[in-house]
Amino acid sequence: MDNAKIYHANAWKSACYRISTHLLHRPPREPEAGGCIERFIQTIQGQFEAEIRAGQILGLAELNRGLSAWLHVSYHQRVHSETNQTPHERYQKGLTIIRQVDMQRVLQSFLHTEKRTVNKDFADVRLENRYYRVDPKLRGDRVEVRFDPFARADTVEIYSLNGQYLGTGHLHHRQEGLPATEAAKGKARYNYTDLLIREHKKQLAEQVGGVDYRKAIEPDSWPFHELAKTVADLLGRKGGLAGLATQELEALQKVYNQNVPLNRQMVKQAFETAFRKICSLYRAGTQPLDRKGEKLMFTTFFNLTANPFMENPPIDWILCDPRMEDALARLKFFQNQGLMALVIGQTGIGKTTLLRLFSHHLPQNRYLPLYLHLTPISTTAFFRLIVTKLGEAPKLGKDRLFLQIMERVQKDEKCTLLFIDEAHLLDPGTLTDLRLLISDADNQVPLKIILSGQEPLRQTLKRASHADLVNRIAVRCALHPLSKDQTSAYIDRRITMAGGSPKIFEPEAKNLIHDYTGGVPRLINNVATACLINAAAKNLNKIAEALVNSTMAEFHLP
To answer: Is residue 228, in this structure, part of any structural domain at all?
Structure first.
């Protein structure tokens, strides 16, 4: 990204975090990286903007619609001088490596929020001297209003104070009780933008399929991303909408665009019906289901009660191997003696699992554990997050937030324990301010902090500016990969807890999985799940070396 101030905004960082995207900025004084986008802007100014300025001045919504139509009808169909392809052709060839994102989650990061009480007489809320009618069932309730301060505010989104979506508020005149309208303005008979939009609609109507992302971000009683997330969960895919392939998204979009009143219960019932048909086909000797039924297929085939290698298993499924036992013993000492602890390990090594285990064994009458993982934000935003987790409304200003945290912690009879996951993404200034919290904790303030992150956190703490913070770390835990024997025990434990036999994986296969994954638990989960899927598809009751090798040939483990 460019280094302009707007591209360093907290909302932009939050949006990138929501879709698991690493934000990179162009190095200062290196303009070469911006050449492509600047050339594109020049093309827009010379072609689209010139036509707009020559015609009628448009509103923002109509201008965006016109730009979308111009891109689709004109720009995307012209051959690029450097690639010798049209942008549309180049995009189609890259579909296999494009990761779909949930645009609704991105947009949520940029909305402003205000808390309001729904008027008991008019069933509306007031925002910036405007009134928005909401569901009459919410009369007298305290709600959170989310809105775009830069858009025309004809509608706002209504949420409960705990983040549950309650519906949409519509602009209306309280005295008349009618929706606000605006007199239509006259138009010229012919308009370049109107022609583009008309042609774009015609082309969309002629297409067989394809995802219309304008509709994907429009509010609906059940948004498209919720449908996609539900389907992904039922298929055992991670990442919600991002876990589905482009072809699968297009198929879902066709169903969604039919305006059939869908809901989560209907989708689950459809999967259950499909599951019963699959079981009957399987009992009749028919080939098991295809890749779209991965989760249902292998759990049934191996008589498992659940996916044994799920991301966040029940606590009793977790194997307390020697490395976990050592780390838990250290954290137990920290529980009684220290103010700050440090957990270091590569991604997928089990840091979050360790924190879950430790939190599970904490005496509930003595400790209040708070888990924080939204770390790539400013110090003020991070303090505001802590205050929210403590159950209070954040005040304005970092100094007030600091005092609010300390006062709230002092009032509680329990010791507040902050679990800060992904701490390697914390701003250095945030680390300094966390040290100040701990400094105040010396004065009998019941507060402890666990920093958990990857190797860059260790390097950050080596800076001289963090010397005081490092001196307050009472316990250090470094998680390492599993050995071959531990990998074998890990796989056996998961299979057994899911109701299966540990003999499903042959010893040689488990050793080979360790070699492929390096003993990293998350990679073991992914590879072992893929092996179960392939074994069920091939009617194999056991997983041997050959199957692991063939699975890895398709898996492309990075």
So the answer is: no
At position 165, the amino acid (one-letter code) is: Y
**418: exposed, middle or buried (Cβ count in 10 Å: 0-12, 13-18, 19+):** buried
Residue found by looking up tokens 């074998």 in the block: 488
**pLDDT digits 0-9 by tens, 360-407:** 888 888 888 888 887 777 888 888 888 888 888 888 888 888 888 888
**Dihedral (Cα; 434, 438, 441, 447), 10-degree rounding:** 70
The helix/strand/coil state of 215 is helix
Give a yes or no: residue 47 inside a domain: yes
SS3 readout for 226-277: HHHHHHHHHCCCCCHHHHCCHHHHHHHHHHHCCCCCCCHHHHHHHHHHHHHH
In three-state form (DSSP H/G/I as H, E/B as E, the rest C), the secondary structure along 141-166 is CEEEEEECCCCCCCEEEEECCCCCEE
pTM of the model: 0.48
Task: Copy the structure tokens of residue 274.
Answer: 């499909």
Query: How far, in Å, are 20, 74, 128, 420, 554 from residue 374 at the CA level?
Result: 11, 41, 30, 9, 33
What are 265's two structure tokens? 């219960």
pLDDT value at 318 more than 70: yes
- Residue 158: which domain range? 105-179
Name which of 326, 329, 331, 327 is nearest 448 in CA terms.
331
Q: How many other C-beta atoms can be found within 10 angstroms of the C-beta atom of residue 359?
A: 17
Q: Could you write out the three-class secondary structure of 90-117?
A: HHHHCHHHCCCCCHHHHHHCCCEEEEEE
Strands 130-133 and 415-420: unpaired
Statement to judge: residues 468 and 522 lie in one domain: no
Rounded to an integer, what distance in angstroms lies between the CA atom of residue 282 and that of residue 287? 7
